[in-house]
Amino acid sequence: MKKEKISNNLAGTRLDKALSILLTSTSRSKIQDYIDGGYILVNAKKERSSYKLKEGDEITINDFPNETYDLEAENISLDIVYEDDDLIVINKPKGLVVHPGAGNFSHTLANALKYHSDSLSSLGGEYRPGIVHRLDKDTGGLMIVAKNDEAHSFLANQLSDHTLGRNYYALVLGVISENEGKIIAPIGRDDRYRQKMAVDLKDGKYAETYFKVCERFANATLVDCALKTGRTHQIRVHMNYISHPVIGDPLYGKGNRKLYDDGQLLFAYKIHFIHPRTKKEMEFSVPLPKYFLDVLNSLR
Questions:
Q1: Among 16, 57, 86, 136, which one carries the catalytic annotation?
Q2: Quick check: is 191 catalytic?
């Protein structure tokens, strides 16, 4: 069992929609089942999925029923940028959960990968076949998938020693005056809101993000962010820390959802790494998706 206090960011949001933000690996339909079944309470009372949350409401999330399952292959379309005998580079769409979690056993990237290939690394476990690193549900862009354990181990080591590089476009609130910058601030779990991360100067893990301004608008800035480290929600936390939260982000920052309210405008557009077999450097990039471009064009 766990409890969550509703912050101002989620006030006025439907209970089921708020829980889909808090429980990112659980489908909204499954969340509605748990609400109807009394596993999720608001202020110790059962409410409807449509209940509009108020700031300060306390959500109690009781342990969901045990559900054992086998990861099923699902014919979900994948945008494959590159593939060989060792790895796959995928352009993950926004809205697709990477791997199954509590209460959500289907319609994930892992299910799609199992359908696509009979050869995937086992190092990530039964429910994360081939998955070397992840992206948040509403962050789209490039990911690497390993097709054997040797490739997985080699790529994971590059994540650790930072030779696997990732660049993201982020549209952030406000105008950044500097042309480029570096944010060094340790990140840990938010003590008050356990689904969030936060800058924690005492107990947080070292985190470093570089950014470069690409374009400025009246009250927004398009930046190119490069990760030196790979902490959970790193770009989202760091940009919020310097008072420029990612627009559309449901968890971080205030006033950042008026322009776009369907998830953070953050996209992993470039990735580079050393190939595990050939030892040659490889780099891939993809253009911004239409939903992101539409927002940019509305600002121009």
A1: 136
A2: no
pLDDT given for residue 29 in this prediction? 74
Give the burial class of 160: count Cβ atoms within 10 A of its Cβ; 0-12 exposed, 13-18 middle, 19 or more buried. exposed
Please provide the DSSP assignment of 225-240 as one string: EEESS--TTHHHHHHH
Q: Is 76 helix (H, G, I), strand (E, B) or coil?
A: coil
What one-letter code names the amino acid at 108?
Answer: T
- 26-30, 144-148, 189-193, 195-199: which has the minimum mean pLDDT? 26-30
Q: What is the pTM of this model?
A: 0.77
Helices (H), 162-251: 234-241
CA-to-CA distance for 160 and 208, rounded, in angstroms?
A: 13
Long-range CB contacts (within 8 A, 24+) of 65-73? 65/39, 67/103, 67/105, 69/105, 71/100, 71/105, 71/110, 71/111, 71/114, 71/126, 71/127, 71/129, 72/105, 72/106, 72/111, 72/114, 73/111, 73/114, 73/115
Domain final residue, candidates 122, 144, 161: 161
Query: Which are the contacts of 156, defined by CB distance < 8 A and separation ≥ 6?
Result: 123, 132
114 and 44 share one domain: no
In this predicted model, which residue has the larger pLDDT, 275 or 256? 275
Per residue in 61-80, pLDDT (tens digit) is 887 766 556 788 899 999 99
Handedness of CA 270, 273, 276, 277 (dihedral sign): positive
- For position 124, which CATH number holds? 3.30.2350.10
The interaxial angle of helices 15-22 and 28-36, nearest 10 deg, is 120
What is the pLDDT confidence band of residue 25, given thresholds at 50, 70 and 90?
Answer: low
The letter for the amino acid at 286 is V
